Amino acid sequence: MDAHFTSGPLNNDLLWLSGSHRGDYYFQNPDRDDGILRIRRGDQDLWKHLKSHPIPENVMEFITLAGFGGIVQCGNRRLDRALISALVERWRPETHTFHLPIGETTITLQDVNILWGLPIEGNVVSGVELNLNNSQITALFENLVGEELPLEAVNGYKINLPFILTKIKTDLPENPTRLQSIQQARLIIFFLIGATLFPDSASNWVHINYLSHLEDLNNCGELSWGSAVLACLYKHLCKVTDISRTDISGPVFLLQLWAWERFTGFAPEAVNAIDFQKPYGARYVLNNTL
């Protein structure tokens, strides 16, 4: 007797989105050449710059204080589009888990903390928008990063990421003051927030609300950034399960690190020994693959 396979659940009481899930579509259409997702990201130019211009220790000190040192230590690797696409096909928005032949699994807060080093305890990262006009946005930016903000770099409440990158590439003085080091750290963190942690579909803008969290870097390091990043990843995974979607954004590199750790057959060889002063994701850093 021929075996009968189905892409959906035997009972739809829990997994009620089966008809519109991209996993169903590709089960019914074996030719997957057009099924590999495009990955939206805007941080490649930053990592290329940091490859030849490492962050000075006096700046890195404040990035670590703010809770983002692990992101820099993990660096960047080329994203595996096929692996990410396969994971999306297994993701169920109804349960926020990957449904595999061996059972369910998901990425957790512990994974975010261990793989990327982001804090997962403390106050939430507020999503409440600041009610600011253009002059107030400009004043906030200039006050915290010490750079003038042209109107063409502002779009509503968002700041242009390529503009921020040009300011990051501006060399610091040979002996920067403490304030200059803090301002440079804020610029780098602000860029990472918009391009690596919470990239949108355009990958070119970052909300000014995040910059307000960087005013006091001590307090910034006590916020639960890991919770916000995990929620963002869940959101983008849920959105991209729709059959009509062709690209994915969000903290996709975190998802790839998680897949490498949990499904070791997909992982490249770790090039660094485990350093308990760094996140686990730093084991895969390659200077020539930024």
UniProtKB/TrEMBL annotation:
<dbReference type="GO" id="GO:0010073">
    <property type="term" value="P:meristem maintenance"/>
</dbReference>
<protein>
    <recommendedName>
        <fullName>Aminotransferase-like plant mobile domain-containing protein</fullName>
    </recommendedName>
</protein>
<feature type="domain" description="Aminotransferase-like plant mobile">
    <location>
        <begin position="67"/>
        <end position="284"/>
    </location>
</feature>
<dbReference type="InterPro" id="IPR019557">
    <property type="entry name" value="AminoTfrase-like_pln_mobile"/>
</dbReference>
<dbReference type="InterPro" id="IPR044824">
    <property type="entry name" value="MAIN-like"/>
</dbReference>
<dbReference type="Pfam" id="PF10536">
    <property type="entry name" value="PMD"/>
</dbReference>
